[in-house]
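Quick note —
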Amino acid sequence: MKSGGRLMWGYLVHLSFNMWGDRVARHSYNPVNPVLRFNRRLWVEILGRLRDMGANMVVIDLGDGVKYATHPEIAVKGAWSRSLLGDELDRARSMGIEPIPKMNFSACHDAWLGPYSRRVSTPEYYRVCRDLIAEASRLFGKPRFFHLGMDEETASHQRNFRYVVIRQHDLWWHDFMFLCREVHRHGVRPWVWADYCWHHAKEYWKVVPRWVLQSNWYYAWSFSEKLRYVEAYRDLDRKGYDQVPAATYYKADFAHYESFPRTVKYIPPRISRKRLKGFLQTVWVPTTTEFRSNHMGALDRMEKGIRIWRRKHGS
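Predicted structure written out below.
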C-alpha cells in the first residue's frame, strides 16, 4: 500500500488473560488466575510463524502480566519484569515484527486492573490509567499504536458477572476520550474495538476523532449487509476512519473457522485502500501449550488470508 505504508498483518497475543473478572465461566480458562498463563516457547514459535508467513505485527495484551514500576500491585505471580518485556520486544523487532501494546479498559474486560476495576471513573482510577498508559508507551519505545480495547461494555455481556460495571451516556464518552487523549499525549495513536458504533452511531461519528484507529470485528460465516456488525465496515469508511478489520479462529466452531480469509475477501471494495491499514487475527484463548493447536489453526487461517490478498492485490 502506498498510502500509510505497508498493510499491517497483525496477530493478537495475550500475555495476560485476566479479562472476564468473576464471570460464571463456560470455559475453565475464563476466570481470573493469580498466576501468569503464558508459555514463552509458544510465544517464540508464534513469532517464527508470523515472520515466515510475512506478517509484520503482534499486538500484546499486557494486562497484569508485567511488573509495572508505577503499579506493581496489579502484577500476577510470574509476571514479566520490565527488562524481560524489553528483551522480548527486541526479539519481535529482530524478526521484522512490530510489537504494539494493548490494555483493555472496557469495564467488561478489565479484571486485570485488580482492585481498580471496582473503582472505575474515580480520581484514583484516572490516575492509575494515566500511569499505566504512560509506562507502557515508554516500555514499547513510543509505539505507533496503543490498543485500548473498549468493547462489550453492556449489561448483556456482563449478565453472568457477580459485580457489574457499565458506563453510559456522557460518562462513557468522557472516559473513552480521556483514555484516547492520554495515549495521544505521548505521541501514540489510540486504537479501539469499534463495536460501540453499532448501537450508538450518531454519537460515535460526532464524538470520536478520526485519529482514533478502528477495529470493527465480525466473526461469523455470512457477511450479510443486513447485519449492523457488517455494515459498520462501510459506515466507518464513509465517515473517514482508518480501519484494521478483525477476524478470529475457534477450533471447534466451523462458523468461525474461516473468519480471517473470509474477512480478507470481503473487505475490498467496502473500505477504501487509503483507509484500510491492515487486518488483525484474534484468538481468544491463553498463550499456553494447552491451546497450541488453537494458535496454530489461527495462524494457518491468517496465512491463507495473506496469500489471498497478495495474489489479488500485491503487498
